[in-house]
Amino acid sequence: MPKVSHDYVNEKKNSIIQAAISVCKVKPLYEITMRDIIKASGVSQGGIYRYYSDLDEILVAVINQTNGNADYRQVVDAIIEHSNSPKESLEKLFAFLGEYIQENLSTVGKIQFELTILVANNPERQKNILSNITENESGQYLVERLFRIVHEGISLGSFQPEVSIEELFTFIMTSIDGIVRDVVLQKCYGMFQNEQVQFDEIRLMNTLCKSVLLLLGSK
Fold first, then answer.
1. Less Cβ around it within 10 Å: N or C end of the chain?
2. Full DSSP string of the chain
3. Of 99, 104, 113, 103, nearest to 184 (Cα)?
4. What is the pLDDT of residues 88-128, one digit of tens each?
């Protein structure tokens, strides 16, 4: 293979990713195959492996590229830095999370939901995919900071939990996952359309925050 420029390689890799993104719009992430991407990109089977080692590397690149706001760790830090109390920090972080979900629902929300199905059915691929997704790193960071704020509030006497910390953290995690799942199912897949209530991610996160503060016995 003759030597090619760095710009040429980047251009080819980007064209493959754009083709993969077009496939994601018409086919669920968990059903996409390398053959689909080869067909959409027009690159030969031998050629595509010059730029990407496997399908999972392409899927990770697609997920990271479709969300320009994926790395929000600095935003989380700024929210906490400019808050005057643990309670205010929690309120602002839950508000940010609701706004983030709303802004990225049609792209990242849908893809992340389909990714959950993919890794559930292919556990051997889970670590290789999830460990390289920027949004997952940011999400884990936000949760870690949330938990740290809770511990800080307890040590300061601002929080007096009504339940164990383990139960509280489990409640927060499962509630966030449930909100994201149901909002995506309704707004991206048309489910629950016969329900009278339209899911609003910002309001739901606000309600979750109020519930968490009640369980914390917030002053």
1. N
2. -----HHHHHHHHHHHHHHHHHHHTTS-GGG--HHHHHHHHT--HHHHTTT-SSHHHHHHHHHHHH-TT---HHHHHHHHHT-SSHHHHHHHHHHHHHHHHHHHIIIIIHHHHHHHHHHHH-HHHHHHHHTT-HHHHHHHHHHHHHHHHHHHHHHHTS---SS-HHHHHHHHHHHHHHHHHHHHHHHHH-TTTTSSSPP-HHHHHHHHHHHHHHHTT--
3. 113
4. 999 999 999 999 988 888 777 788 788 889 999 999 988 88
CA atoms within 13 A on the CB side of 6: 0
pLDDT tens digits, 127-174: 888 888 888 888 889 999 999 999 999 999 999 999 999 999 999 999
C-beta separation of 196 from 114 below 8 A: no
